[in-house]
Amino acid sequence: MHGERSALEVFRQDLYHCADCNYCVDAVWAERGIEHVCATITHHSPALSYSGRGYIAAARALLEGQALNLEVLAERAFSCTGCGNCESICPIGLRPAQVGQALREMLAAQDHLPAPLAALRTRVREQGNVYGAPAAARSAWATGLEFTAGPLATLQYAPGCATAHARPAEARAAVRLFQLAGERVGYSPADDACCGAPLREAGLPQDAAYAEQTLAGRLRAPLLVTSGLECAPAWQRGVTAERVLTFPQWLLQALLDARLQLIPRATRPSVVHVFDSCASRRPGDLRAAVDPTRAILQHLAQTVENSAMAASHGVCCGAAGSLATLHPAAAARMGATRRGAATVPVVAGDVRCLTHLAGSAGEGGEQLFGLAEFLLHYFEVEGRAT
Ligand code: SF4
Ligand code: SF4
């Protein structure tokens, strides 16, 4: 109990300044594209105890020594996607998403980890991926591709679990773009495994730190590029932020440096829909003034139908955090709702979102593209290596 309190003590200001305004639960603000806030509240349960406000109330109760049913609290806390929407909308700058994360870590440390998440931990420990696929299957996407060995590589590619196992075409397209830009790409199947990001999201920082350090210790190239937007912070913890880029970040830089030129084909769609990820607003993650996927499309004069303002408060698609593991049906509803009825090609810079959407897309799934796939499909690419 003492440990619980000290972990929550860090958030004392947040716990006692919450005004119970409910913005983080059900705010609606049409001009800003805000149509409710919390995916879990909207698609899993409307009970306040599943919200950022609910996590703050529970943490305050624990801090004051009240006895709570920790099994019930765990079901609530692990049903959060960790999207950070509650935190970005709180009018007085409180940190409800981080309080939820602290609760998850406290509950996991005290053996209140829900069974589906304990199984996730076992899959990552034993197979090195979140899906429980055989470890050897992870590199199937790379069959037939040529890589540069060891220290001669200028860039090491880490596809991330979702890209490697569920979107091999995006991984192959990314490697093609790297090589066209003149990069010598390193990829070692023996060194590629889950970076630990899903474990950290699931409240297991020690398992996550082990994975981060193990992989980082094997990095030989000066730069690591990952297609997993959730993976980049894990790699940055293992090495240094300067040595890690997401694929959209790398690509934007390559275009600005004129290492790649993209010429539209006649088949290029006149309009696309950008599927914005909550990776850019999750606490401590990839906060950036301009989302690189949108910046790339702007650089290419590609018209985008949906505004970035609305996207910055879009409700999570259900791919992030521990919710999809705990409540897959609710996560599928989130995905189907977020995708909506877009009639133009959808471009996603975050491959974890993309694979989740593809799983819940039904008809029209062929209109979903990863960023690299989209560019190779609709543009002629010239670079230093052509
Ligand atoms: S982080 Fe996202 S899912 Fe979790 S409570 Fe906040 S808004 Fe809801
Ligand atoms: S955490 Fe912020 S947005 Fe949520 S109820 Fe408290 S003050 Fe309002």
Characterise the protein shown here.
The protein has 386 residues and is of the alpha/beta class. It contains 21 helices and twelve strands. Helix 1 packs antiparallel against helix 8 (96-109), helix 5 (52-63) packs across helix 8 and helix 11 packs across helix 21. The mean pLDDT is 90. Bound molecules: iron/sulfur cluster (2 copies).
Task: Summarize the topology.
Elements: H1 2-9, H2 12-17, H3 23-26, E1 28-29, E2 34-35, H4 39-43, H5 52-63, H6 70-77, H7 85-89, H8 96-109, H9 115-127, E3 155-158, H10 161-166, H11 168-180, E4 185-186, H12 197-201, H13 205-217, E5 224-226, H14 232-238, E6 244-246, H15 247-256, E7 260-264, E8 271-275, H16 292-299, E9 303-304, H17 308-311, H18 323-326, H19 328-339, E10 346-348, H20 351-361, E11 368-370, H21 371-378, E12 379-383
Parallel strand pairs: 3-4, 3-5, 5-6, 8-9, 8-10, 10-11
Antiparallel strand pairs: 1-2, 7-12
Helix pairs in contact: 1-5, 1-8, 5-8, 6-8, 11-21, 13-14, 15-16, 19-20
Bound molecules: iron/sulfur cluster (SF4) (2 copies).
Percent helix: 40-55%
Query: What structural category characterises the helix and strand content?
Result: alpha/beta
Low-confidence stretches: none
Distance between the termini: 63 Å
How large is the radius of gyration? 21 Å
- Report the total helices: 21
DSSP, total strands? 12
Q: How many separate structural domains?
A: 3
Taken from the alpha-carbon principal axes, the silhouette is globular
Q: Beta-strand percentage?
A: 5-15%
